[in-house]
Structures are given as C-alpha cells and as structure tokens.
Amino acid sequence: MTIDTKAYGQVEVDERQRITIPFGLYGFESLSEFVLMDARQRPFYWLQSVDVRDVAFVLIDPKVIRQDYDADIEPRDFEALELEDSEDERFLQFAIVTIPEDRQDMTANLQGPIIINKESRIGRQCISRSDRWHVRHNILEEMASTGKDAC
Amino acid sequence: MLILSRRKDESVIIDGRIEVAVVDIKGDQVKLGIKAPRDVKVFRHEVFQAIQAQNRAAAAAPADLPTLDIPMDNISTESKE
C-alpha cells in the first residue's frame, strides 16, 4: 500500500509495517492506524499515522539511550497485548522522541513508552510505574553518561 | 462536578463497576484505593497531562532528523564501509 508520510512524502509500505494502536496515543486518541518505518537517520524510526499525514512520531529503542531501561509497566498492559512480559520474544518497545529547534535538547519519553506485540502488530502507550523515568530524558546527555559507565 | 463527602473506609461506586475508596487520611493527604476493570486506565492526573503534552510536542517533529553518534556497544550494528 502507498501512504502519504510527513517525512518522505508518498511511500510504499508493506502490510507488515502496519501497527494498530486501538486506543491511540494520549492526546491523539482518535488515531489508531499507523505505519512503523525506519528513519533514514539511524537509530530512529517513524510512527506515521495512516490517516493524517502530519501526525508522525519519531521513535527510538529506549535501550539505545539507557541500557538499564525497564519500563516496569502494569501486568495488565502486557495482558491487553497478549504478551507474557518484557522477555516475550514478540515484545517490542519504543520511546517517543521530541526534537525541539535546538537539536542538542532532543528528549525521549521513557515514562510513556509504546509497546507492541510484533506478531499481532497491536500496540499501546503505557505509563511506567517506576519513578526513575520521566517524559523528557535528554538523549545526548543520557548517552554520554552511559558511555562513561561502560568505560 | 459532583461533590460527595466520604469518611475513611467509605467509598463511591462509579458506573456500577469502578469503586473508589478512601483508604487513609493524614493531614492534607488522602490515600485512595481504586478497584476497576482491566480496560479502565487509572493515572495520577499530572502524569496523564505530562504524557499528553509530551506527545503533542513530539508530533511537531521536523521531517528531517538529526543523526546520532551511537557508541558501538549501545546498538548492534555492522560497520559501514
């Protein structure tokens, strides 16, 4: 199928890239059909609304920012997606990225991750129960300190 | 807004399926217990608002993204060229 995307205009996408988020994202509850695409700039992804071209979210694997990331979401969030837990091989998670004018200040929302069952391709925005995570983690700063820890 | 007075250990039932109980009262802090079916999501209001606001800010992303220099140990990747 061909969809109109905010980042790349008309794009041919595979059915397997389609993600349904039945309850939408907070603030965008009416939009439930999306396409997940690799961004041309690694390691980002685009979650593009199928219905509204201008609604597209930049995603990142939260483990790229924080290797110790564990969303600690409610068991019923897993149940809703028919997943066992975060070890389930069908489990995918993403953090939504906010890119302000000054790109040094780009942040990732680690408190409200999107989780997806990659087999059913159904997703859901969850809210972490952990107080370690908030809605704006500076990506470059987090990655810089992760690098230091690793040395 | 409907306003009801409740004492400790009393509760209200919403829509026959959601129970909100006053579990404890200490000074200006009230502890609520909420029993609700699985499809009902319950959050602190400020958390809900923060996530909603952040989603709106994120949706304003520019179409051209920055690139990130990823340390090799952060992501499994084949080296280019």
Question: Can you put this structure into words, describing what you see?
Answer:
The complex is a heterodimer of chains A (151) and B (81). Chain A is of the alpha+beta class. Chain A has a single domain, classed as BH3618-like (Roll), CATH 2.30.290. Chain A contains three helices and ten strands, in the order E-E-E-E-E-E-H-H-E-E-E-E-H. In chain A, strands 3, 4, 5, 6, 7, 8, 9 and 10 form an eight-stranded antiparallel β-sheet that branches. Chain A has a two-stranded antiparallel sheet with strand order 1-2. The N and C termini of chain A lie far apart (46 Å). The relative contact order of chain A is 0.17. The model of chain A has no long low-confidence stretch (mean pLDDT 92). With 81 residues, chain B is an alpha+beta fold. The model of chain B is unreliable at 76-81 (pLDDT under 50). The A-B interface holds A 6-8, 25-28, 39-44, 54-58, 61, 63-64, 67, 76, 79-80, 96-100, 103, 106, 109, 111-112, 125, 127, 134-136, 139-140, 143, 146-147, 150 and B 38-39, 41, 43, 47-48, 50-59, 61-68, 70-71, 73-75, 77.
In short:
With 151 residues, chain A is an alpha+beta fold. Chain A has three helices and ten strands, in the order ββββββααββββα. Chain A has one domain: BH3618-like (Roll).
List the helices and strands and how they pair.
The complex is a heterodimer of chains A (151) and B (81).
Chain A: E1 2-5, E2 9-12, E3 18-20, E4 33-38, E5 45-49, E6 56-60, H1 62-65, H2 75-80, E7 91-98, E8 107-117, E9 122-125, E10 137-138, H3 139-150
Antiparallel strand pairs in A: 1-2, 3-4, 4-5, 5-6, 6-7, 7-8, 8-9, 8-10
Chain B: E1 11-14, E2 18-26, E3 29-35, H1 45-59
Antiparallel strand pairs in B: 1-2, 2-3
